Amino acid sequence: MASNRKRLCVLGSTGSIGETTLAVVRDYADRFQVVGLSAHAAADALAVQAREFGVEHVCLTGNGNGGELEALRPLRGEAGLVELIDRCEPDMVVVATVGAAGLPPTLRAIERRIPIALANKEVLVTAGDLVMRRARRLDVPILPIDSEHNAIFQCLGGVSDARRLPLRRIILTASGGPFRGRSRAELSGVTREEALNHPTWNMGRKITIDSATLMNKGFEVIEVHHLFGVETARIEVIIHPQSVIHSLIEYHDGSMLAQMGVTNMYLPIANVLAYPERLENARFAPLDLAAVATLTFEAPDLHAFPCLRYAYEAVEAGQTYPTVLNAANEIAVRRFLEGEIAYLGIPALIDAALQAHRPQPADELEAIAEADRWARAYCESRAPMEPTAERMP
Ligand code: MG
Q1: How far is the CA of 1 from the centre of ligand 1 (A)?
Q2: Mean predicted confidence (pLDDT) in 279-285
Q3: pLDDT of res. 391
Q4: Residue 385's pLDDT band (cuts 50, 70, 90)
Q5: Strands 142-144 and 116-118, sheet pairing
Q6: 269, CA 20 to 30 Å: which among 115, 184, 187, 312?
Q7: Distances in whole angstroms, Cα of residue 340 to Cα of each of 59, 214, 251, 350, 385
Q8: Dist. CA 152 → ligand 1 center (Å)
Q9: Euclidean distance between CA atoms 22 and 26, whole angstroms
Q10: Phi, psi of 279 (to 5 degrees)
Q11: How far is the CA of 64 from the centre of ligand 1 (A)?
């Protein structure tokens, strides 16, 4: 039977964004159809999803037994993600993987001129110049799922290239994470459990730590720079603990536009999946502004949260520095989660990697992959450092 439903390939479908994407599909089954799914290690959960949505094409990127998934003869490994796109012929690829694994399938989708709903930050952080150059050349839309970028996309009226607009600033809001208001000294002894306890957003572990260090916001600055073609000098970050305003833009005439809504990723995901249409929201009560009552804002503390500063420095230095920023952070966060380094060891390790790096032009995948490998090896092999060794602003 012919169907007008939008065919979705969801990469990283068992993660937080992937599951929410499938919740949108479940709610609007007349509009969306899932034709491909991938997970890293959650083979059983992937099998359950494949059965529920009647999906034939699946990929398991991690090692390990596929369990009942084996009946579907899953594609394997990160290379399998590229093959998955070729096999399932989607109308849109939702890239909700974690880490650098999202890059090859994103490039494949661009090559095949398939619109992309992008949630994986590392794709633009690590290879933004390359990805956007190819996407713009082939006119492939990259629609942002991340709440801040989706907010900016909405404020811009669906324009994804802001280079010709009379924009003065783009202002990214940040909740400030669990350690907002703490001084650097007060951060020295914080535990993994404290860092994993995010006040407003419920997310995966890596991004929750990235939110605590503000590296997540640093990555978002880099993403804004690439997605909308705006230089970092015009991208600002403001701490807004209520997370009601998801980001703002300001035109040259002083007018500011903000996008607001409840803090649930369902909304930006539904916005992107349905774009340019808007779905009728049947799931959430309208945001009650009288109940919110107060919106507050404060400048970020770059001394207590140097990761945000490193992100600006890395993207301004260009070349392979953002790749190193991303890879070093990934290893530092893993080492923190496994108890190998202290919380302040995360920025210390990233800074050490950025200082030691010998940059290369980042216009080919090979140079990016090499910088990524170098940074991972460097950060894996380094003994935990005294955070006091770190540069001061
Ligand atoms: Mg965000």
Answers
A1: 39
A2: 89
A3: 53
A4: low
A5: parallel
A6: 312
A7: 32, 20, 46, 15, 11
A8: 11
A9: 6
A10: -80, 150
A11: 31
Query: pLDDT averaged over the chain?
Result: 93
Tell me the CA–centroid distance for residue 201 and ligand 1, in Å.
9
pLDDT for 393 equals 44
* Statement: residue 193 has pLDDT above 80: yes
CA of 148 to the centre of ligand 1 (A): 5
Q: Are 384 and 340 in contact (CB under 8 A)?
A: yes
Centre of ligand 1 from the C-alpha of residue 376, in Å: 24
For residue 72, the CA-to-ligand 1 centroid distance in Å is 34
Using the mean position of ligand 1's atoms as its centre, give its distance from the Cα of residue 316 in Å.
21
| pLDDT tens-place string over residues 213-271 | 999 999 999 999 999 999 999 999 999 999 999 999 999 999 999 999 999 999 999 99
Residue pLDDT, tens place only, 56-110: 999 999 987 778 889 899 999 989 999 999 999 999 999 999 877 899 999 999 9
Per the listing, tokens 């007008």 go with 4
Identify residues whose C-beta is under 5 A from ligand 1, the ion: 146-148
Q: How far is the CA of 20 from the centre of ligand 1 (A)?
A: 15
- The pLDDT of residue 99 is 79
Q: How far is the CA of 151 from the centre of ligand 1 (A)?
A: 10
